[in-house]
Specification:
6 strands; single chain; DUF3499; alpha+beta; two-stranded antiparallel ribbon; DUF3499 domain-containing protein; 3 helices
């Protein structure tokens, strides 16, 4: 939260975290913003903190696509025998090692 003062009204204003620096604004952590008190005779005006934005439809669709893709079986790849390719192929998971000996 960001704390500012309105000296003319004897009011301390505690609002959402400022997006740019002000010379007379003070950023406070959650603990200190909850414990804030003002001098005697002053009022504390606490502005509501906006709710954090939730996931968008694009985020949810991207997540669903990623889950679908991860759940698809790996395509079967036909490998040519060593005699046809002239090199040995070793597979380990999604990695493939090709021999440079010809």
């Amino acid at each position: 939260m960001t704390l500012t003062y309105v000296y003319a009204d004897q009011t301390a204003v505690l609002g959402p975290l400022a997006t740019y620096a002000e010379p007379h604004a003070y950023d406070l952590c959650e603990t200190h913003s909850e414990r804030l008190s003002a001098p005697r005779g002053w009022d504390v005006l606490r502005l509501a903190q906006p709710a954090p934005p939730g996931p968008t439809n694009d985020d949810l669709l991207a997540l669903a696509d990623a889950v679908r893709e991860a759940g698809r079986p790996a395509p079967v790849q036909r490998s040519l025998p060593e005699e046809e390719t002239g090199r040995e192929t070793t597979r380990r998971g999604h990695l493939r090692v090709l021999s440079t000996d010809h």
